[in-house]
């Protein structure tokens, strides 16, 4: 007889998730002082939402009544090395983070998590719970690490020994007791490649990223003018940045994703450097209609391209 935990993990893999792990829904005691220090040092910049719901961010029982378990899932988005599946990233090319190549991951993960929750209701019974995908105060990397899916690396991304770090993370928080998995160990060792490679020195210490100095922050989250002090340091990234992941030795194990929705969109693949420099609201709307790029809006993308060129 399979346990409920085994049934859920098997169904998660059947739905296309790459990994699934379980942790006890409890207060994140180790994360609390780290989060408080990070916020106190204003490393969230203008991401005011990061300072909201401090208690809920650390305790899933405040998000789901009587929560007992956190089920974490990983979904690979690495495009592989086939040039037909990825944008060129030469010195003269404008660069888009790989996670934005296809359909917005919020839609894809949420649908799969809802399917997993429906399975739990059908197979196990009346279980209370909610699905979360990066849109509520849930510390997804901490929960994934607690459930044994990897460790949080020096660049603050979750690392998995089998497939690196190009993953989306989602959770089900359930009022169901499940057998928890134990955390894995850290395998960054003495490596500092991500720290050394960051052009804006956003990784201020091992395992500590100043979000307000990250290229992803400047190109996506920041709504005002990009500060001149980082001029010339973007290496042509106009939406997000993958540098710290691209240089990580663990990503030599990254495998091409198997999710058609994450495939490079034809519209994005067709964009030339001139197209980016002359982008209009109409073109951007078509390009970003089901893409994470919606978040930066057309005026943000225009600002990013101009910042690199002027």
From TrEMBL:
Q: Which SUPFAM superfamilies match?
A: alpha-helical ferredoxin
Q: Give its E.C. classification number.
A: 1.17.99.6
What's the main place this protein lives?
cytoplasm
Entry superkingdom: Bacteria
Ranges for the 4Fe-4S ferredoxin-type domain?
Answer: 178-208
Q: Does the keyword Metal-binding apply?
A: yes
Does the keyword GTP-binding belong to this entry?
no
Which positions are annotated as binding cob(II)alamin?
A: 57, 134, 158, 169, 216, 241-242
Molecular function (GO) terms for this protein are: epoxyqueuosine reductase activity
Which positions are annotated as binding [4Fe-4S] cluster 1?
188, 191, 194, 248
In this chain, tRNA is annotated as bound at: 223
User: Catalyses which reaction?
Assistant: epoxyqueuosine(34) in tRNA + AH2 = queuosine(34) in tRNA + A + H2O
User: Required co-factor?
Assistant: [4Fe-4S] cluster; cob(II)alamin
Which EC class is the enzyme in?
oxidoreductase
| Residues annotated to bind [4Fe-4S] cluster 2 | 198, 214, 241, 244
Q: How is the cofactor bound?
A: Binds 2 [4Fe-4S] clusters per monomer.
Subunit structure comment from the entry = Monomer.
Q: What is the protein's known function?
A: Catalyzes the conversion of epoxyqueuosine (oQ) to queuosine (Q), which is a hypermodified base found in the wobble positions of tRNA(Asp), tRNA(Asn), tRNA(His) and tRNA(Tyr).
Family the entry assigns: Belongs to the QueG family.
- Protein's UniProt name: Epoxyqueuosine reductase
Q: Which organism is it from?
A: Fibrella forsythiae
